[in-house]
Amino acid sequence: MFGLRKPQSSDALLFSNLLDQSSFYGTFEKDLARAKREVIVESPFISFERLNYLLPTFRELSRRGVRVVINTKPVEEQDVDYGWQVAECITSLQEAGVDVLITGGHHRKLAIIDQQILYEGSLNILSQNDSCEVMRRICSEQLAVQMINFIGISKFIR
After folding, report:
1. φ, ψ for residue 133 (rounded to 5)?
2. Residues 17, 137: contact at Cβ < 8 Å?
3. 3-class DSSP state of 60
């Protein structure tokens, strides 16, 4: 695995970390614990099991004044057997002080912490359970801000 040092802009991808479904959540939780301003998570799917794992952390971030923004798919675009579960998960997030955005056709899987750390890959952060996935962790303000602008979420966080 590559080192965790903070790279200069052109070297950012050379010093990224590749994580799988086993190593992602531990690393992600450590980054969440250090968040100071905002956390953005784009996960098209949400499940009770994964949300129950992350909700206490999101609740604590909110309590500390860290803005948490989750972007997910509309309930009607979720699997019909899980639509009710997604609706309840969204309510739980909102009750925890999380801002929930709903985007039709959404399928991005990423997270941005304090406009400094960018995670991107195939892992649905709020629903991953039993699949082989990959996420790349990049420490780069330049690339994090580039992603914020690219996905158009800047109007919701600034």
Report:
1. -130, 170
2. yes
3. helix
